[in-house]
Design goal:
- This protein has 267 residues and is α+β, with helices and mostly antiparallel strands.
- It has one domain: Lambda Exonuclease, Chain A (Alpha-Beta Complex), CATH 3.90.320.10.
- The chain has a five-stranded mixed beta sheet. It has a two-stranded antiparallel ribbon with strand order 3-4. The protein has a two-stranded antiparallel ribbon with strand order 6-7.
- Helix 2 crosses helix 3 and helix 4 runs antiparallel to helix 5.
- The longest helix is centred in the last third of the chain and has 22 residues.
- It is globular.
- It starts with 10 loop residues before the first helix and ends in a 12-residue tail after the last helix.
Amino acid sequence: MLVTHNNYRAVELNQYYMSNSQFRTFLQCQARAVAECNGAWLLESEAFTEGSLFEAMLVGGEELENFKANNPDMFSSRGNTKGELKSNYKRIEGSVAAFKRQPLFMQIIKHCEPQRIFTGEIAGVPFKCMVDWYAPKPFEALGIPFPAHSTFDTKTAKDFKNGYSEHEQRYVKWPYIHGYHYQMAIYREIVGGDGVHRLLAVTKEDLPDVSAVMFPDTVLDDAIANVRELAPIFQAIKRREMPPTPCGRCAYCKTHKVLMGWDVVVQ
């Protein structure tokens, strides 16, 4: 199945392909992941919207104009501020400015193609991914050599503090909270070659912080081993060969919760 920028998030493609975001959703709640694949549940978070805004502002040009056209409610439509971001999204402008002040970041994206789509298989399961920044050729940034086929994903974070991982049921460092190590491991597998796969991150604080993140190979090796083990199971759930297990904690589960009896509360 041909994957393009126009149909990347189409229901039919989400049912056929797995992606890093879909895999990470399955880790959190299988019931919600199935509902999202079937187009029966869509609850885009503010963080997702702000991340999309950040990427559009970073790429600029047609990408930004398309974002404005698809999200008119985020921009002022009258007065002296017409066309500008509304006040509750202004902090993203600060994050973009902080990102652009980093020579390392700007030299990296200068040598990369934005929003490159790849498809492939992991453990027999079709995967698709849209890489924020892809380097087709080797290059250097601040004297640091980067091989061809390297990928760089931009991330906006509330902050860089440790947080609780629902999947791992423990506190972890911020890149692990949302499973970004799985994303980089999947990119390494699908893109192929000898490239590196790293994060270019900036916070959405009043005074934004920045971070260039790389995961040890041992972490990516463990992550892809988990993907190979779990992806076929998740694919079988998508095909209705196995029932999904609800997490009982997410918005989807709370919305579809039906009480069948009494909760016994022990002191």
